[in-house]
User: Which sequence fits this backbone?
């Protein structure tokens, strides 16, 4: 049985979810030492939107709900720090 969920290191900010990968592809940006970055989800029109290469599990309702929660926490932290 294959893996049930795809979990990669990355970061989330107000406008996007960026993931790191060891696999090169035309849409990925080389960082260093065989590590590439890709914008996996973009936040606009009030929600995270898929990119053509977004893995399906990042579009699950549960995943998007979690990412929205993290985004709101992040935005609140930014407001408090300002």
Assistant:
């Amino acid at each position: 049985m294959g893996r049930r969920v795809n979990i990669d290191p990355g970061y989330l900010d107000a406008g996007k979810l960026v993931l790191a990968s060891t696999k090169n592809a035309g849409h990925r940006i080389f960082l260093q030492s065989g590590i590439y970055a890709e914008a996996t989800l973009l936040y606009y029109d009030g929600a995270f939107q898929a990119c053509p290469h977004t893995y399906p599990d990042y579009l699950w309702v549960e995943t998007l709900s979690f990412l929205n929660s993290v985004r709101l926490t992040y935005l609140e932290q930014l407001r408090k720090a300002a």
Residues 10-81 form one domain. The longest strand covers residues 35-44. Helices lie at 61-81.
